[in-house]
Amino acid sequence: MADDGDRDGTGSRPTRMAQISRVGPGEATFLYITAAVMCLCGPVMLGFAVLTGAELMVMGVVFTVVLVPLGLGFWGNTVVGREHNRRLDAVGVPATAEITDLTDFDWNGEESGVAVGLRVSGPGLRTFETTWKRTHHPALRVGLRLPAVVDPSDGRFRVEF
Predict the structure, then answer these.
(1) Dihedral, CA of residue 111, residue 66, residue 35 and residue 85, to nearest 10
(2) By three-state DSSP, how is residue 15 classified?
(3) pTM over 0.85
(4) In sequence order, what are the beta bridge partners of 19?
């Protein structure tokens, strides 16, 4: 029997919901500058070593091999994030994200975060539940309704908090 994608019995293909974080112009500028610095520091160090005879050749090669790919990845991630935000701004449907659960978790061994259970609904949208991992904020509480925007065609959403 062929898999037609109807996993929830509604006749529609389920969509994977993906949360998008807002990346405004100021944040994007900072991220682009950081990526550019990452991409340029190794080659500049190499050029300085070649032109002056300084003993930075090995360090320049290491910085180039490590930081250029990381900088390009950082740049690409920023571009994709901005595209998702522009799409949400253009075609997103206003929705409400109700907090259904708050669970503390260990984020990185030094800092704790909170996993926020959300029920997202809006006019013309199929209600869905998801988890939003973020830093603690004193205003977050179960039952709080937050504004959100959802792209119904691809399942991306952004909580406006």
Answers:
(1) -60
(2) coil
(3) no
(4) 157
